[in-house]
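Incident log, support desk, overnight shift.

02:14 A customer reports that sequence design results differ from what the structure should imply. Their input is reproduced verbatim below. On-call engineer (initials T.W.) acknowledged and began investigating.
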């Protein structure tokens, strides 16, 4: 999987994480377990426990979400930096003149030089190739 495909997958994950949310944490935290017609008992206690557990879990999820999104953003930034670094590091291959007399031969030699760099990410290779 090349860098661009990884970035796309991470952006999809980020979108999924950020869009799957309760409209507001306050909605859950302010939810009341009081039902006027309920006079107590085991069922009401269980219901109140369920509400409390839900509030705690939602609060926990909301506190972890920003750090998860930050980690995804950091990884996307790192991958983009790798693309730019590799691109800039090998830009000389397409900027160099191999044969000043014959432009067709010069392009052919540039392609051969680029093809010898087998470790290049396919995104970087495509960007460099487009400059030949």
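02:41 Re-run completed on a clean worker. Output:
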């Amino acid at each position: 999987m090349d860098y661009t495909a990884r970035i796309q997958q991470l952006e999809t994950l980020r979108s999924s994480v950020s869009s799957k949310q309760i409209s507001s944490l306050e909605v859950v935290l302010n939810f009341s377990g009081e039902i006027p017609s309920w006079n107590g008992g085991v069922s009401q206690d269980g219901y109140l426990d369920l509400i409390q557990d839900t509030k705690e879990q939602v609060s926990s999820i909301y506190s972890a979400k920003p750090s998860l999104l930050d980690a995804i953003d950091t990884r996307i930034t790192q991958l983009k930096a790798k693309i730019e670094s590799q691109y800039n590091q090998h830009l000389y291959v397409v900027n160099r003149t191999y044969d000043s007399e014959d432009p067709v031969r010069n392009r052919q030699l540039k392609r051969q030089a680029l093809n010898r760099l087998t470790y290049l990410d396919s995104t970087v290779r495509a960007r460099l190739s487009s400059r030949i």
